[in-house]
Amino acid sequence: MNRLLVLVRHGQSDWNLKNLFTGWKDPDLTERGVAEAKRAGEKLNDMRIRFDVAYTSVLVRAQHTCRLILEGIGQPDLETICDQALNERDYGDLTGLNKDDAREKFGEEQVHIWRRSFDIPPPGGESLKTTAERVLPYFESEILPRVLKGENVLVAAHGNSLRALIMELEGLSGEEIIARELDTGVPIVYRLDEEGKIVDKEVLQD
């Protein structure tokens, strides 16, 4: 029996549109983001996927995405668990800055290091490594056991919290995962075996 784990990065947020470092700030979806989330629900509905539980962060853009997906597959009242462990990476002093302005302020090379290194955090913030250190224990203690029980699980979260999960699932190095781009509102469907190993992976891209 294959077990389904579906990961979805939230739809475009207002701060994505404005090219701002968002982190733990809490903007909602744009009109495009709403459309992306609805489209994700349609794709999953076309595959006749139904879930036993959903997980999301405490941030509204992920929760809104999750809610729209569940409405789209006819499961609006599904058990949904929100936890800070699934929040986006905290960008610290970069939070709220336009990415171009940040390059001007700190230098293009330094901002590139903060964004694209695995273990060097921006001032006051998290690296992808420290993000993974809070995401993965939660995944292993709360989410994975439900998948291994045979439940279909949806996780609607953020680019970097999902990178941490993908790194673990696919056995990627820090350098490999930092280069992985995740489009907004695109479901990644994993079929796992009884040990949590990937049997099949499908990215539901248009």
Please explain how this structure is put together.
The chain is 43% helix and 15% strand. α2 packs parallel to α3 (60-72). The chain has helices at 14-17, 31-46, 60-72, 99-106, 108-116, 128-148, 159-170, 174-178, and strands at residues 3-9, 53-56, 80-82, 153-157, 187-192, 198-203. It has one domain: Phosphoglycerate mutase-like (Rossmann fold, 3-Layer(aba) Sandwich).
Summarize this entry quickly.
The protein has helices at 14-17, 31-46, 60-72, 99-106, 108-116, 128-148, 159-170, 174-178; strands at residues 3-9, 53-56, 80-82, 153-157, 187-192, 198-203. It is of the alpha/beta class. The protein has a single domain, classed as Rossmann fold.
Number of helices: 8
Distance, first to last CA: 28 Å
Helical/strand content category: alpha/beta
- How many E strands? 6
Top-tier CATH class:
Alpha Beta
Low-confidence stretches: none
Return the CATH topology. Rossmann fold
Strand content: 15-25%
By CATH, the superfamily comes out as Phosphoglycerate mutase-like
CATH architectural grouping: 3-Layer(aba) Sandwich
* Helix content percent band: 40-55%
Oligomer state equals single chain
Order of helices and strands: EHHEHEHHHEHHEE
Indicate the overall shape.
globular
Cα-atom radius of gyration:
16 Å
Task: Provide tags for this entry.
6 strands, glycolysis, Rossmann fold, six-stranded mixed sheet, single chain, gluconeogenesis, alpha/beta, about 210 residues, phosphoglycerate mutase activity, PG/BPGM_mutase_AS
